[in-house]
Amino acid sequence: MIDVVGVRLQFGSRVLFDNVNLKFLSGNCYGIIGANGAGKSTFLKLLTGEIEPNKGDIVIEKNKRMSVLNQNQNAFDDKTIIETVLLGHKRLAEIDRLKNELYAKEEFSEEDGILAGNLEAEFAELGGWDAESEALKLLKSLEIDPSINYELMKNVDAKIKVKVLLAQALFMTPDILVLDEPTNNLDFKTTKWLENFLLDFPNLVIIVSHNRHFLNQVTTHTCDVDYGKINMYVGNYDFWYKTSELLKKQANEQNKKAEERAKELKEFIARFSANASKSKQATSRKKELEKLEFVKYVPSNRKYPYIDFKPEREIGNEVLIVEKLTKKGYFENVSFIVNRNDKIAFFSDNSLTLTMLFNILAGVDTADSGSFRFGATTKTTYLPVDNSKFFDGVDKDLVEWISDYSKEKDGTYLRSWLGRMLFSGEEALKKANVLSGGEKVRCMLARMMLLGGNVLIFDEPTNHLDLESITSLNQGLINCKCPMLFTSHDQEILSTVANRIIEINKTKTFDKAITFDEYLNKK
Asked: Where are the alpha helices (H) located in 57-130, listed in sequence order?
């Protein structure tokens, strides 16, 4: 359905893609993955025709309708919700406009009549008479209140706008569906709805997403963008990840064996090349040495930080007791006991509720009433959702910054910690107050690891992180033996880490030792 043939894209001296050859077929769902800055979204722009390649061709099968998820929430502020969805089928919308213009004419010629007839026929053929009912059905399935379907988009809450733009992209089953980060700002229920929709979608889907769980659920193929090339694998994200790790391991093992054999051959040649009786054997080994093959394995452009939480001391049986904790406007009479093996995912209709709870437990804020008590053997470390106070106005380089949280002050030691979090060489001398959002979170994770706490609290730890850092964090949380309290929008982390769920809303609390998937099923 889409053929990418010898595509090259260059911006100035930087070559983003070179000699890319791919074929995208109907009935498949392709996930586009790659390091930040590798060009995933740019590649989507090539496929949709928003930008042109410097070389090569992108050939789309004739008469196939492409729909692209719009990222600009304010692009349709002057339209109603229903009008915005109907604009998802551009040709239908254009026909409708042309018809209205013709019928509004004061003088309607014979030529106008023929054109109107042709437009009416095409309109009917494209399903135009059912379009509005289809749009209303789609909005209802996304649980948008029917009473606001004819409201202007500018008057609609941002969370609703995201759903409307999604409905626009999915409207009337396009032949080619292109989605760039479709789960951003979607709640879990809508994300699950979209998963099910795409699993039943009969045509071609191409997706860029940082949501690993979503990619694993819906994709049939994975396109890996790395070093200006795009390699396609059959299978979802997890299959690609395991395959790439296996190939790297096999290459390393083969090269290790080749190096050992080369060493043996060189030693024999050096020892016996001057010995007449062994000269034939030495010559034979020289030939074998020349023929030895080493696997050329180019390390990925991706970089995975090393995240591993090791507590300074083992925790006792008493971890945390919370009794009738109340904060006006957030929660009332919240009580729970944390056990030493608990990894608790917290949920609420209002994320500020959980941030306030965590701030109170971490000593950043105070409750109006009630109490909480940590066990005598506990040491708490906290990753807040707002880390600005750790960086804003802090005129220190990262080595100086991280030394504040380390007992060991040796520069080499501190640099090694920064290196494991991808701040190597000159990167370690960056000023703390100029870091990007993702860099700040990586620093905060390094801080937590250095502090060596045995009770960990995380408030949305994946915010601003790329796919590689999220994958490393996920593994670190799985491996961690400490009790933890956390919130997250990353479904893979929730599914693989949490063994207990606590949901807190204004006057009620749900608390059960179940997995996230079991919790979703109950919901």
From this structure: 81-86, 90-103, 110-125
